[in-house]
Amino acid sequence: MTLADKLNAGETVLTAWSTLAAPAVVELLARADFEAVTLDMQHGAHSVDSVHDGILAIAAAGKPAIVRIPVGRNDMVSRALDFSADAIIAPMINSVEDARAFAAHAKYLPVGQRSWGPARALSMRGIQKGQDYLSSANDKTVAFAMIETRAALASLDEILAVPGIDGVFVGPSDFSISWTNGAAVDPHHEEMTEAIADIGRRARAAGKHAGVFVFDAPRTQSYVKMGFNLLSVIHDGAYLSLGMSTMLDQARNG
């Protein structure tokens, strides 16, 4: 079952968030009990090469791979999909024009204008005929537009209506900076909680998926209740830090 199938079936997908490009770390994340792994090219250390190799490691563990591209790097959309990524998260989609440009690179005609060249994806998915991939790719890959600013919130309905945009993904930190006009960075800012909940509700009402970056694991289920069905739970640096702290506490205190 693909990531698109799981989301369309109403499943809640928890994804690991990979910022460290070390292959061994990506492999550990892929073998953990997450439903997916996201490779972060925006704020993480991932490069084209590490994304290419990381997708292979994730697929070997039987998990879907998601790639967050850098801001404005629509050229990486089709490239990551050609590498066999299951989904793309595009940051700072602040207008319907941004959404259309992103979707154009994520989907083949007649929805978008994605260029043909998925040799890696065909090989990894065991697809013999290019026509079979062409016929299914638009439905089997997922394009998430990040909602991170007041401008994006104001254009939310128009962004959701863009053909080829399969869902939206909230970045609470950037959203808080925009919400406070640069006064604070606080992913749990109380004044924007209802706005984030509204994004989840409106996305699901439009028949689209809703994702969010969760900075505090115990808050995950509260986002699920808001309608979010793709949730990234913190990131690999935090996993290492938490694991070390727990181990050292046990070693010192029994």
Automatic annotation (TrEMBL):
Claim: Membrane is one of the keywords in the record: no
Q: List, for all copies, the residue spans of the domain called HpcH/HpaI aldolase/citrate lyase.
A: 16-237
| Keyword set includes Metal-binding | yes
GO terms for MF: aldehyde-lyase activity; metal ion binding
Q: Which UniProt keywords apply?
A: Lyase, Metal-binding
Q: Which residues form a coiled coil?
A: none
Q: Name one GO cellular component term.
A: cytoplasm
User: What family does this chain come from, according to its entry?
Assistant: Belongs to the HpcH/HpaI aldolase family.
Put simply, this protein is called: 2,4-dihydroxyhept-2-ene-1,7-dioic acid aldolase
Q: Which organism is it from?
A: Georhizobium profundi
